[in-house]
């Protein structure tokens, strides 16, 4: 089976909600193509879908899918293709999903840098979504107490991401715009 057929079959498994089957096919693709970020990204996306749809705790109270491996595969994909906004955003989003907020913020900062360094890469959607997800994560972690030190640390970051996601070149420029009469 060609690599293209393998990836197509994996995508079909995802469409049928057979995420574990897709993970197996992507793992084969990774073994055959260790320098192709698509295999790592596909495996990690499939694993994240599996966790989101079916939970991650088995009957014995253990993780069914290793969250560390999911994050590592997202990290590997984004390191193999550092200019791919989709891979960077997926890695950061997974870190938020796994309650690794400081690590997620660092990855979203890389996404900001990518958007600032290239006129051809639009990261605004990813940053706007990052703001929403970051606020949700912070609120859950602090029981919706925005005066909590953790919230005070990350709410401004989420606001910055939201402003960049709205298309402002910087949070400072957005603030200047708001201050105009």
Commentary on this structure:
By secondary structure, the chain is mainly α. 74% of the residues lie in helices and 0% in strands. The chain folds into 2 domains: 1-81, Serine Threonine Protein Phosphatase 5, Tetratricopeptide repeat, CATH 1.25.40; 85-181, no CATH class. It is globular, with a radius of gyration of 18 Å. The mean pLDDT is 92.
Key terms:
181 residues, mainly alpha, Serine Threonine Protein Phosphatase 5, Tetratricopeptide repeat, 9 helices, 0% strand
Write the layout of secondary structure elements.
Elements (H helix, E strand, L loop, with lengths): L2 H13 L3 H14 L4 H18 L12 H14 L4 H13 L3 H17 L6 H19 L6 H17 L5 H9 L2
Helix pairs in contact: 1-2, 2-3, 3-4, 4-5, 5-6, 5-7, 6-7, 7-8
